[in-house]
Amino acid sequence: MKEFMNEDFLLTTETARRLYHDYAETMPIFDFHNHLSAQEIYEDINFSNITQAWLYGDHYKWRAMRTYGFPEELVTGPKGDSRTPETPGSNHPGCNHSDAGSMDYRRFSAWAETIENSIGNPLYHWTHLELQRYFGITEPLSSKTCDKLWDACNEKLSRPEFSVRNLLKMQNVKALCTTNDPCEDLEYHRKLREEGFSVRVLPTFRPDKAYLIGKEDYPAYLAALGKAWGYPINSLSDLKEALVSRLDYFIREGGCLLSDHSLEGALFAPSTDEEAQEIFERRMAGAALTADDRRRFQGNLLTFLGKQYAARNIAMQLHIGALRSNSSRMLQKLGPDTGFDSVDDFCYAGELSALLDSMDRTDELPKTILYCLNQRDYEMLASMCGNFQSAPHRGKIQFGTAWWFCDNKRGMEAQLDVLANLSLLPVSIGMLTDSRSFLSFPRHEYYRRILCNKIGCWVEDGEYPCHMEFLGKMVQNICYHNALKYLTGADA
Prior knowledge:
With about 500 residues, the protein is an alpha/beta fold. It is built from 21 helices and 10 strands. The strands form 3 sheets. The chain has a 5-stranded parallel sheet, covered by helices on one side. A 3-stranded parallel sheet has the order 1-2-3. The two termini are about 40 Å apart.
């Protein structure tokens, strides 16, 4: 029997172990897509307890806790002070602790019982990698150990060396890209840059609300965008000018390197500016739009934005296939992004091809990273990338790493297999966290172990020669150097 999550965790061959320990293990991290708070980084906060670090914004954990049957008050809140007493006897009965009356402790004890029952789930591996890498804890979290681990984690989190900035440094993070609406002023990104913080904290341009014209709050969003731009938005041309102005602001003030788009249900239909303007006018007059109206308006704006990215050497990320806010009851109660999204199953190869071609036909397709939420689409997406590759970039169109519901051992292994089969693995820009947690960076380690094991198995099965120097350099490129080169043009 192998030791639980030891130094050779997930590494099943000698070649895999050499690749990981000699080449991948100490590589820096360029986390080019996440949902972290630049304000919290600037303020360099210390979390009061492990619940705040783990459970305050992580909908992966929330879904698991709901599935195990815990009430919503223990899943999403209310958020409380770890020392604030609640109703006597209200604590979860699985733990006995002096802080058991506090809301944060009760939530932690619920999570401890949930994770003990998460065998086969990536949350189990992520949780214990985080306990090991940040806190030096190798004991598994369970209902029996929750008291001990609560105290151990909280004692360390109270130290200055466990502030948010130091948590990033612990994992050798060199740069990270947050996700930001065009309306944001980027105050804290700018302050971090002016201060010279050693980790580059860069914004990502996320203009979804500008093209999702069918949303109920669309007019209100345009008013907010107009305020950020400085002028009212009364036409399609105003909207485009506002977005370009904000994009340039993101580049100038924040050092923006990427855009990001969530595409759900409908991707693209061709539309002239005149047609899109007519759709815009009908929407602002209060008329209902058809699905085709929405698709054509989105198609027009995405094509326009893509060409703007190409002109500025900004990479475009397309996250495809989320079915969001499925529970209308919980959407009304908690809002979006609270753990009620799932995998969609629509077909979109033709629309995606047409979207990319709408930019490529004039040689204005930007560097593009394609992610899918349904593993069924892996082969389609990886083969689609090959249709639009062009020099001077290596891997100009990227089949992005396993995302969200695919972000697990099986999903990562399958993504690597498909990428190697239908494209070129050595040009991959590798892993990202897509996380809201400052403790999530061991996910890069998880990916790197799986990557090294995959390559090691190919070598030891006689499918590729054991050219360790070449393979080691390839692994280091995938872990860090490729993303750095792809996004910044720098080699090191």
